[in-house]
Structures are given as C-alpha cells and as structure tokens.
Design goal:
247 residues, disordered N terminus, mainly alpha, globular
C-alpha cells in the first residue's frame, strides 16, 4: 500500500495563526512585566477591559484557527471523520503540553494554578469538533447554542475544579487561565464551519499565495505549539535574571 499523501499546506492559515501568536506574546510580555512590577503604573489584567477584551480576542482567534485547521485536515476525506493516528498524535502533543502547563502554573501560582486553560480546552474541543464536522451548515446554530448556553444555564455543581471545565459556572474560578468547553467550543465550531465554506467556495482565500512580508508569520504559525510552550519560561527566566542582576 502506498503511504497516504501529506495534507496540503495552507500558508494563509499559518500566517493567521502566527498573527495570533505574536498578539499572545505581546500580551504575555506585558503581563510578565506587570507581575514583576516593571510596568508602571501597575495594571489589573483580571478586571481592566483593555486587557480582558484582548484576552478574549486572542483566545477567539486561536480557536477560530483551530476550527479552520480541522476543516483543512478533513478536506477531501469522504465519510464520517476518523480520529486516526495522525489526529491522536497531534492531540497527544497538545494534551501532554496541557499537563505541563498545569504543573508549571502550580509551581508559580499555587493558589491560581491552571486546571483547564486554553490547551486543555483545545484538546477536548478538537475531539468534539471532528465528530461534529459532518453537520456542516448545522455547525453555525450549534456553535451559537454553545456560546449562548452559559448565559442561560449555571449551577453551583459546576463551580469545582473537577467540573468547571464544562463552563456552566456561577462565577469564574480563581485561575490564571480558564477556557472551558462552553462557550468556547462554539468559536471553534464556527471556525470549522467557516473553513468548510471557504474550501468549497473560496479556496484561494486559504490556499492562495502569501505575500513575502507575511512569510515569517506563516513559519511561526507552523510551530505554534512549540512557541506557546517555550515563550513564557524564556520570558519569565529573562525577567528573573534581570531582577537578580540589577536588584
């Protein structure tokens, strides 16, 4: 049997993901500078709309890209979407990195460690999105329902660290990152639906040539998980070294 062909590369999608990474890195640099009191005046990243809205936009862009990526991964594959070896290999990388994020955050922020952040959410949402992919046009209302449901339903049962991953909480948990299944699954489903529509009707919007100036963004987008895992330890390490050297 001949090996399965490698999936087509979509440089514009890579560049969009790279843009999300640059925005995230700028946000985290600001957060780290604030944490170590290098940023003046001191900022409230947990309540100031200038920062909280940026976080919402960054997470939304990442999840839209993840949904678009699922559409490209399933493009040209008839039948029910399979959770094949390639999917589980990538899923295992994301899930493993999510565990590392939890361990690292527990060391640095023991009172607000990350039990279900963006990588935990993506790992769970990828499975749900792939199984929902055959709905195609039905993904739009399903995504809208996922986004709206936490506004209608909330119960104290979902307030513990064992259940808050669902998202139907009565108050936001004390944690450095929180990306529950609801409402964020809806954003990924919309990304998947948009990707299916683009591949069917406007394929060049994803697969077309990329301006040379955007090539670094595309390269960064291809290594998004590696960058995500390395940038914070490097940034925090650099700030700790600077503080030690300069008092």
């Amino acid at each position: 049997m001949s090996p399965a062909p490698r999936p087509e590369r979509y440089p514009r999608l890579d560049a969009l993901r790279g843009l999300a990474i640059v925005w995230m890195a700028a946000f985290h640099i600001s957060f780290d500078l604030n944490t170590f009191h290098f940023l003046q005046p001191f900022q409230d990243f947990y309540a100031d709309p200038f920062w909280t809205r940026q976080r919402i936009c960054i997470v939304s862009l990442f999840l839209l890209c993840a949904g678009l990526g699922q559409a490209t991964a399933l493009d040209g594959r008839p039948g029910w979407p399979r959770l094949d070896a390639r999917f589980w290999r990538r899923w295992g990388q994301i899930a493993g990195c999510a565990v590392l994020v939890s361990l690292g955050s527990a060391w640095m922020f023991p009172r607000s460690w990350i039990s279900f952040g963006v990588l935990h959410g993506i790992a769970l949402m990828l499975i749900a999105a792939r199984l929902a992919a055959p709905l195609r046009g039905g993904l739009w209302p399903l995504g809208a329902l996922a986004i709206a449901l936490p506004q209608w339903v909330a119960h104290p049962f979902f307030d513990s660290r064992w259940t808050d991953w669902v998202g139907l909480v009565t108050h936001k948990p004390v944690t450095e990152d929180y990306v529950p299944l609801l409402p964020w699954l809806g954003v990924m489903l919309w990304g998947l639906a948009a990707g299916q529509w683009l591949l069917a009707r406007r394929r060049a919007w994803l697969a077309g040539p990329l301006p040379r100036a955007a090539a670094p963004l595309a390269l960064l987008g291809r290594w998004s998980l590696t960058f995500y895992m390395l940038h914070q330890p490097l940034l925090i390490g650099a700030l700790l070294a600077w503080r030690r050297l300069h008092g």
